[in-house]
Amino acid sequence: MTLDVEPPSPPELSPSIDPNEYDDADVVGDDNDYRRDELSAFLSEGAWEEAFAEWAADTDVTADEWAIVTDLGLGSDFDFFWDDFAGRVGYHAPGLPQDWKEQEVHPELSSWKQVSSINAGLTELGQTVCDVLKDDYIEWESEYEAPDDLPDF
């Protein structure tokens, strides 16, 4: 299914956010060099729009669901960072809370199906952005080197 909407603005990546603090983080190390400035430049230079177009061509997110995402400002509320240890782009996708009903997050939000579709779609968008960055924009290699004193197994 194709989602025919304008992409949101690229996210503004904040150097003050430590990816290790995310509940779903899988970042090893604490070098604090997440290369957000370079990633932000790549996003602004076209990676964001390229990835969004690729994602929108195959997403299951509907236009009505995307309208909710847009109303809530979630479309550009991602975080991307370089995970040097793993040699990959990591990300944190925004999402709707589990207590969306109690919080009355949005008047058009009426089912767990919508919530699941939106959250899954945002996760897929984040991964697509990571893939586009890694495949088409990033030319640097991981600088992590394993210590010499690791035990043999």
TrEMBL record:
Residues 1-32 are annotated as: Disordered. This is DUF7992 domain-containing protein. Residues 2-153 form the DUF7992 domain. It comes from the Archaea. Residues 20-31 have a biased composition (Acidic residues). It comes from Halogeometricum borinquense (strain ATCC 700274 / DSM 11551 / JCM 10706 / KCTC 4070 / PR3). InterPro entries: DUF7992.
